[in-house]
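Many introductory courses stop at the sequence. We go one step further.
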Amino acid sequence: MSTEIKVPVLGESISEATLGQWLKKPGEAVALDEPIASLETDKVAIEVPSPVAGVMGAYSVAEGATVNVGAVIGVIEAGTGAAQVVASAAPAPVATTDVADLTLSPAVRRLVLEQGIDPTKVKGSGKDGRLTKEDVLAAAKGGVPAAAPVPAPVTASASGDRSEERVKMTRLRQTIAKRLKEAQDTAALLTTFNDCDMSAVMATRDRYKESFEKKHGVKLGFMSFFAKAACLALKDIPSVNAQIQGDEIVYFDYVDLSVAVSAPNGLVVPVVRNVDQMGFADIEKAIGAFGKKAKDGSLTMDDMKGGTFTISNGGVFGGLMSTPIINPPQSAVLGLHRIEDRPVVRNGEIVIRPMMYLALSYDHRLIDGREAVTALKTIKEAIEDPTRLLIDL
């Protein structure tokens, strides 16, 4: 007896996805709810759990194919299965790559691509010799014995100094490209800049970081300060937290903060909801949890839905200055950048201060220049004098 594997409900308004990878080979034992395939939607990667315990049967869909919600992509056969593929269970031809030929979890697969590791050259320490995240990280540092090298096909020219590689864009990357271009084509984008003295925030964090972590179980970072500062600015300048919907402007009396996070498959923006009502510890915990989920590939549709304002921290990658693009249908995004010591004038003297450039990109159709500059100035002043965050000034 066999049980069909169907594409699960993917979320509101999401009707199709791309089959990214099969995680089980035909003939392998499968436990109930064990991930057997990964799907890539416009926003996140989703694992398909096995509906029953049994043996992985034949695939109905090849990797890279587009599938609709409810479509049958394979079957689970009755039985106990085996650790490896059996000859009698050969699947229909499936287009795969060197990475997909191995049974890798989505998290391990993303880490392999992120670290640039050839998985065929690394010995796995997991069950049945499968690769774990620790194996990949150790290999990246040169700490895991490599298997015998597998000769790679020659793609370079006769001189051996030029080569090309063509890789199909993932559904997520295609969506990112489409949305960013739509933002440029639709909104009247403009960016205003300011610089910010980080001395006070850094001193505050250094003074309280140990007691903060001891009490709340999370580290005190800079993002919670900027989130709270942004809430002050959005309260004073409502248009920065508004959206154009048709011929109407929608003003929100709450702040759902989209936090741009770098994931292996591209930039994602999970949403911290009602951040204006949260304390520093809750904000740090929420952002930390989303960062971990992004790296593990476990973000859900609900994690990404909505958002009224975005903060993007390019400083973690060393960026000095940028003009971030808004996250439609939002009307503004705050860009943070690296902190570096620079000479500034204080009380008529040249001193060295840890400075950060701030950038606020906004939709000029809705937000006037005066409003944008005032909002960014409010954020700057709150960071340079964190007491303002306590007295709502």
